[in-house]
């Protein structure tokens, strides 16, 4: 079942990032390592830049998800059915 979701993500083409603002503590790893995908607000909390994630940005997005100490970042497939 999990494999189906994975396949859907990739065939969908575009992925979207989400930051859980209840979890984000402003560590900044995301916007420092992937400034094309994330920005910071005035207090240093992460903001997802508008637009989807595709092509070469996908690896950076996956890395941001894995490297957030608060597990505040999610990467999800966009349902374009
Ligand atoms: Fe927040 Fe995690 Fe980025 S704590 S600033 S989403 S690295």
Short description:
The chain has 81 residues and is of the alpha+beta class.
Which helices and strands, and how do they pair?
Blueprint lengths: L1 H11 L2 E5 L9 H5 L4 E3 L5 E3 L8 H11 L5 E5 L4
Antiparallel strand pairs: 1-4, 2-3
The structure holds FE3-S4 cluster (F3S).
Q: What is the molecular shape?
A: globular
Major beta sheet summary: 2 strands, antiparallel
Rounded Rg: 13 Å
- Main-sheet strand order equals 1-4
Bound molecules: FE3-S4 cluster
Mean pLDDT, rounded to whole units? 85
Q: What's the number of extended β-strand segments?
A: 4
* Name given to the CATH architecture: 2-Layer Sandwich
State the low-pLDDT regions, or none: 1-12
Q: Please report which band the strand proportion falls in: under 5%, 5-15%, 15-25%, 25-35%, 35-45% or over 45%.
A: 15-25%
Helix percentage: 25-40%
The CATH class: Alpha Beta
Order of helices and strands: HEHEEHE
CATH topology: Alpha-Beta Plaits
Total of domains:
1
What is the number of helical segments per DSSP (H or I, 4+ residues)?
Answer: 3
Assembly category: single chain
Explain this structure to me?
- It is a single chain.
- The protein has three helices and four strands.
- Mean pLDDT is 85; it is low at 1-12.
- With 81 residues, it is α+β, with helices and mostly antiparallel strands.
- 33% of the residues lie in helices and 20% in strands.
- The radius of gyration is 13 Å and the shape is globular.
Question: Key terms for this structure?
Answer:
two-stranded antiparallel ribbon, binds FE3-S4 cluster, 3 helices, Alpha-Beta Plaits, two-stranded antiparallel sheet, alpha+beta
């Amino acid at each position: 079942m999990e494999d189906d979701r994975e396949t859907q993500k990739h065939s969908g083409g575009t992925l979207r990032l989400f930051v859980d603002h209840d979890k984000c503590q402003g560590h900044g790893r995301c916007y420092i390592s992937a400034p094309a995908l994330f920005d910071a607000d005035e207090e240093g909390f992460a903001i997802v830049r508008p637009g989807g994630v595709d092509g070469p940005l996908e690896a950076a997005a996956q890395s941001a998800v894995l490297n957030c100490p608060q597990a505040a970042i999610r990467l999800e497939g966009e349902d374009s059915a």
